[in-house]
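Translate sequence into structure tokens.
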Amino acid sequence: MGMRDTMEKNIKVEFVSREPMEEQAIEIVERKGLGHPDSLCDGIADAVSVALCREYQEKCGVILHHNTDKVQLSAGRSHPCYGGGEVISPIYILLGGRATRVFQGEEIAVDTVAIRAAKEYLRNVRNLDVESHVIVDSKLGGGSSDLIEVFKGNRNEIGNETAEPSVPMANDTSFGVAHAPLSETESIVLNVEEKVMAEFRDQEKAIGEDMKVMALRERDRITLTVGDAFVSKYVDDYDHYIETKQRLREFITRVANDYTACDVNVLVNMADMPG
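Result follows.
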């Protein structure tokens, strides 16, 4: 009998009574786009973990202990100008955390796998030259000896085909993450960011992926504040920038109105200085 059949289920369901979000007077929602530094770090951390899992499965037959969620990004420097621009100093990305480096006496190429995975993920950013605009460094430490022993218990004597699977042992006091149906405001923010990237960006190359969308709903009035870093080599001049920004504002307004009957006001790149 397998582990799923022998484990006692520990599930408790409790009714939560509170005013639904859409009936509350104030709601604030924010989403960061693919090219936002926070999103880049999250995406890289996931990509590195997936790559290590594959490497461990292929080389060792089991997923070994690793934590790759400590990614740091230090901003580079650029000199933007209408119709061009250049990167003066590259972005620096540091991969931190832990990963098991040795299995049954054999070295595992942890750093090589991690750096390759990070660079491959960064190729999703359209205007980023991964080889010249970014430096990726790995400082993944070895797995904790205590936690390695925990994972050894999970493996239940690799190679023993007659062994029954054991109950997996936890290596941390991690808490679960839940999900509920999106509110109307959340749907607006999600669809604005996704449709700008999937649709409007194909019409206008100047739209960058470093984007942030924040919605403030005050009863039946919604203010959408959008920040998007335009790509200067696709912006001819100041008038072209203003025209593109206005077209972006109109596009976002149409998208938002598809998901709500509330009054919607869209603000784009409000920190701009005239001229």
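Note: The two ends are 73 Å apart (CA to CA).
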